[in-house]
Design a protein that fits this description.
- This protein has a single domain, classed as Luciferase-like domain (TIM Barrel).
- Helices cover 45% and strands 17% of the residues.
- The chain has 14 helices and eleven strands.
- The strands form two sheets. An eight-stranded parallel β-barrel has the order 1-2-3-4-7-8-9-11, surrounded by seven helices. It has a two-stranded antiparallel ribbon with strand order 5-6.
- It is globular, with a radius of gyration of 20 Å.
- It starts with a strand and ends in a 6-residue tail after the last helix.
Length: 368
């Protein structure tokens, strides 16, 4: 990539919806924030899908994205990621084709197979089958986007003489991303030319994962440009380091906990693997420890580089350091966390847009 690009990663947590009279009030606030992002120079806005948890309260991402498309004009929009096992892939393909049309070709399609067994149990979806069903779902989506009429007969999905129109606005289809750290996920990304999404895991895990992905890409012998890598980190920008720390400290530890007691559901990260899946990776243990530690306070986030909190200069330095060590191409800032007030979110966004984005647009020599 010739330039570092910037995104907002929006987890759409329950607490934002619980704090307003109607859910539409939270949606409207979200739309206002995306309009600010568009105004100040962000290229992407991604939302997350989580089913059966307080994180990810946009339970139907395609509906949200269709509405967002009508309130924006240039920013690229998408899910990072759609959790494939919770969708009929033909229906998802049709929904996303319409979003791409309504946005005049601004959809980014992120896919994943899910990580939290509890959501699968509540939906009565086999957790251990998700890694095998995912590639089939992607096959169906590609056919629906590129063929006027098709049939498909796999182990998990079967269709006969399906008409799938209209196709997406972008040809042959929207840019594709896939989230996953396993060898099979990285191999899928290389085989199909998908971008890679990296989320809340410590730096050493992400460095190792992206190095493996780059080696797989090199060894594949592909002649096309390597797709981009995406990293998300929580961000809060204020006028000084001290002010940023004081303003963010009360909210960051609640990022993955507010609302859980009301529903008595397991913590995010508490069960990120299942022995029946037979894909256990010691990195999962590290991830689980991260989610536990993040509840202890802002200092844990800063110590483990999970949040970039400070003045514009401090945030610029942190992004430059980790971009150099990891080699990611898109930085996704998670500006809303816990019960942080809207006015602080908007202030942080505007400082980031005024100082951080222009710095990297002017200084691209370090980008590899």
């Amino acid at each position: 990539m010739a330039n570092l690009e910037f995104a907002v990663f929006d987890e759409c947590s329950y607490n934002w919806f619980d704090s307003v009279p109607q859910a539409v009030d939270a949606y409207e606030q979200s739309f206002r924030e995306v309009q600010i992002e568009e105004e100040i120079g962000f290229k992407y806005h991604f939302i997350i899908e989580h089913q059966g948890h307080v994180v990810g309260q946009v339970q139907t991402p395609s509906v949200y994205l269709a509405a967002l498309a009508q309130r924006t004009s240039t920013i690229r929009i998408g899910a990072m990621v759609f959790v494939l096992p919770f969708h009929n892939p033909l229906r998802l393909a049709m929904d996303c084709a319409m979003v791409d049309q309504l946005s005049h070709g601004r959809l980014e399609f992120g896919a994943g197979v899910g990580t939290t067994p509890d959501s699968f149990e509540s939906w009565n979806i086999p957790y251990s089958e998700r890694r095998f069903a995912g590639p089939e779902a992607l096959d169906v989506i590609m056919k629906a986007w590129t063929e006027d009429k098709f049939s498909y007969h796999g182990k998990y999905y079967q269709y006969d003489d399906v008409i799938s129109l209209p196709h997406p606005y972008q040809k042959p289809h929207p840019p594709m991303w896939f989230a996953g750290r396993s060898q099979s996920s990285l191999e899928l990304c290389v085989e199909r030319g998908y971008g890679v999404g990296m989320f809340l895991h410590p730096d050493e895990v992400i460095v190792d994962t992206l190095n493996t992905w780059r080696k797989l890409w090199k060894d594949s012998g592909k002649k096309t440009p390597r797709p981009p890598a995406f990293l998300t980190r929580s961000v809060y920008v204020a006028e000084t380091d001290e002010q940023a720390y004081q303003e963010a400290a009360a909210y960051l530890p609640q990022a993955y906990s507010w609302g859980e007691e009301k529903f008595s559901i397991p913590q995010i990260g508490a069960r990120e693997f299942d022995n029946s899946d037979q894909t256990y990776d010691p990195k999962q243990e590290i991830a689980r420890d991260m989610f536990t530690g993040m509840r202890s306070g802002i200092d844990f986030w800063l110590k483990h580089n999970l949040a970039y909190i400070g003045s514009p200069d401090t945030v610029i330095r942190k992004i430059a350091e980790t971009q150099k060590s990891m080699g990611y191409d898109v930085f996704g800032g998670r500006f809303k966390f816990g019960p942080i007030p809207n006015h602080l979110v908007e202030k942080s966004l505007r400082l980031f847009g005024k100082h951080v984005i222009p710095h990297f647009q002017r200084n691209t020599s370090h980008i590899t």
